[in-house]
């Protein structure tokens, strides 16, 4: 069994930030990531542009230089990968953590798809992008329905429905429309989401206004079929022709994993995890949370820009215990 001072679960930007802090503090650490470096960012749409400017995505004051004020996915992948390699951070990729068990001697046994580890401290920084929010509608399991969007070329000259009105849904609708898809947006609420990027929102609203993109507001999907969608609109049931669906209705953290390792969650449906805001330590001694996972279902509360500080809070607390 491999022994470490600190095991960091998740190799995203905040997990990497925790690794940098652990290295500066002289602790023997290991980052375990179930996919490639910054797996969630890798799975973002090919042409995605961040809402934050590059300096707000920086970690450990390492400069992030981008061609535009707001960097794109490929630039972020390059930035975070170079931080890992140039700082020789100890990271295991394509290795999934399956369990974390607290021992009587106040240590943890961390089991993965490849090995077992013993650690004094564990940091969970697993993000939220791995589990989509499903709409639980008949036909949602059809091959034409996807909860992730990658490249607009795939949908050229097809009848594409985009479900949702957030940044991801709006970006997909605009990109696919400009690559020749016949795009229809299906929005549960009365308008495009208020948190859509301010430089994109007028674009989608104008495309809808001019009829280039069809939009059904206050509408839900009653059923997916091979060639159609059956909608529940304010005017009653409506059937539209359809080849593909992008159900971009958001994502959620792995709450089952948190429950399994013993982290307490709120019972109000938001599933806020219990932790000390000054140290990020959970109800389990020496087990910490970092990043977006701290917000429960409200995944907009924490992001790279405002959760970078978690790394310092956690490692300062760990060092105080070591001293």
Q: Summarize the main sheet.
A: 7 strands, mixed
Overall helicity: 10-25%
- CATH domain class of the largest domain: Alpha Beta
Q: Which second-level CATH architecture of the largest domain applies? A: 3-Layer(bba) Sandwich
CATH 4th-level superfamily of the largest domain: FAD/NAD(P)-binding domain
Q: Percent of residues in beta strands?
A: 15-25%
SSE run: EHEHHEEEEEEEHEHEEEEEEHEHH
Number of strands: 17
- The overall average pLDDT, rounded, is 95
**What is the rounded Rg?**
21 Å
Q: How many structural domains does the protein architecture include?
A: 2
List the total number of helices. 8
Helix vs. strand class: alpha/beta
Low-confidence regions: none
Note down, in words, how this protein is organized.
With 323 residues, this protein is α/β, with parallel strands linked by helices. The chain folds into 2 domains: 2-131 and 251-322, FAD/NAD(P)-binding domain; 134-247, 3-Layer(bba) Sandwich (FAD/NAD(P)-binding domain), CATH 3.50.50. Helix content is 24%, strand content 24%. It contains 8 helices and 17 strands. It has helices at 13-24, 39-42, 73-86, 167-178, 201-210, 255-261, 304-307, 309-322, and strands at residues 2-9, 29-32, 91-92, 97-102, 108-112, 116-124, 131-132, 145-146, 159-163, 182-186, 214-216, 220-224, 228-233, 236-241, 244-247, 251-252, 287-289. A hairpin with a 3-residue loop joins strand 12 and strand 13. The radius of gyration is 21 Å and the shape is elongated.
């Amino acid at each position: 069994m491999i022994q470490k001072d600190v095991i960091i679960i998740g190799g995203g930007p905040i997990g990497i930030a925790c690794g940098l802090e652990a290295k500066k503090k002289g602790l023997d650490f290991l980052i375990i990531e179930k996919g490639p470096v910054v797996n969630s960012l890798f799975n973002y749409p090919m042409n995605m542009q961040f809402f934050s400017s590059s300096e707000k995505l920086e970690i450990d004051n390492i400069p992030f230089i981008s061609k535009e004020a707001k960097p794109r996915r490929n630039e972020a992948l390059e930035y975070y990968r170079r931080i890992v390699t140039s700082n020789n951070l100890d990271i295991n990729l394509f290795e999934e953590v399956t369990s974390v068990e607290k021992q009587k001697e106040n240590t943890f046994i961390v089991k993965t798809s490849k090995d077992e580890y013993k650690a004094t401290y564990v940091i969970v920084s697993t993000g939220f992008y791995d589990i989509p929010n499903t709409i639980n509608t008949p036909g949602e399991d059809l091959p034409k329905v996807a909860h992730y969007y990658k490249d607009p070329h795939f949908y050229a000259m097809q009848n594409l429905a985009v479900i949702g009105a957030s940044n991801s849904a709006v970006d997909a609708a605009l990109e696919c429309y400009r690559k020749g898809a016949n795009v229809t947006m299906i929005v549960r609420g009365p308008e495009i989401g208020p948190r859509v990027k301010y430089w994109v929102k007028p674009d989608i609203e104008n495309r809808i206004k001019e009829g280039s993109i069809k939009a059904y507001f206050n509408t839900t999907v009653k059923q997916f079929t091979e060639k159609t969608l059956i909608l529940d609109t304010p005017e009653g049931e409506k059937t539209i022709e359809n080849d593909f669906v992008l159900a971009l209705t958001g994502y959620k953290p792995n709450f089952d994993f948190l429950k399994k390792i013993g982290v307490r969650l709120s019972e109000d449906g938001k599933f806020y995890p219990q932790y000390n805001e000054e140290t990020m330590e959970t109800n389990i001694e020496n087990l910490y949370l970092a990043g977006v996972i701290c917000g429960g279902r409200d995944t907009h509360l924490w992001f790279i820009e405002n959760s970078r500080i978690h790394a310092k809070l956690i490692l300062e607390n760990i060092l105080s215990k070591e001293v």
